[in-house]
Design goal:
By secondary structure, the protein is mainly β. The protein has one helix at about 5-10; strands at about 25-30, 35-40, 50-60, 70, 75-80, 85-90, 90-95, 100-105, 110-115, 120-130, 135-139.
C-alpha cells in the first residue's frame, strides 16, 4: 500500500497518520526569564488525548530543552531520535545517542533537563502521563 492509500484508509476509519516533519514546531520561551529553548510540536493535540502527552523536540546546538525541573506526579520519558544530547539529572551528566531513552519518576527529587552541547541538531520525543494534579518544580 502506498502512503496516500494508508492515510485515506486511516481517515475513513477515524484514525489519523501525520508526519512529524510536516507539523509546525514552536520555539519554547520562558515566561519568567525570556530565555529561548527547543522548538516543540505537541503530537497528542492532534488526537485530543487527555491522559497522554507526547511532544517532538528539535534542539539546536547550544540550546537547552527546558530549565532544570521535576514533576510532582507526571511520569516522563525521553527517546532520542537524532543527535547526541546531554542529559542532566541531579549531579549525573550523561551523553545520550540515538535510540537511548531515559525515564523520570515523579518520586525523585532530582531536577533534570536535556542540552545540546554538540554542533548537530538533536531530535527527541518526550512522552508523559498527563495528570491534572501535576506541578512542575523549577530550581
Amino acid at each position: 500500500m502506498q502512503y496516500d492509500d494508508i492515510r485515506e484508509s486511516m481517515n475513513r476509519n477515524n484514525c489519523h497518520a501525520l508526519s512529524i516533519n510536516e507539523i509546525e514546531h514552536r520555539e519554547l520561551v520562558s515566561m519568567k526569564t525570556g530565555k529561548t529553548f527547543s522548538k516543540s510540536a505537541i503530537l497528542t493535540d492532534f488526537f485530543e488525548f487527555k491522559d497522554l502527552f507526547v511532544h517532538h523536540e528539535i534542539l539546536e546546538p547550544g540550546k537547552q530543552a527546558s530549565a532544570p525541573h521535576r514533576h510532582t506526579s507526571c511520569e516522563e520519558m525521553i527517546v532520542v531520535l537524532e543527535g547526541c544530547p546531554t542529559l542532566y539529572l541531579g549531579d549525573l551528566v550523561r551523553q545520550l545517542k540515538p535510540g537511548d531513552f531515559v525515564g523520570f519518576n515523579p518520586v525523585s527529587q532530582e531536577l533534570h533537563f536535556i542540552e545540546n552541547t554538540t554542533d548537530e541538531e538533536v531530535r527527541f520525543l518526550v512522552i508523559c502521563s498527563n495528570p491534572k494534579s501535576d506541578q512542575t518544580i523549577y530550581n
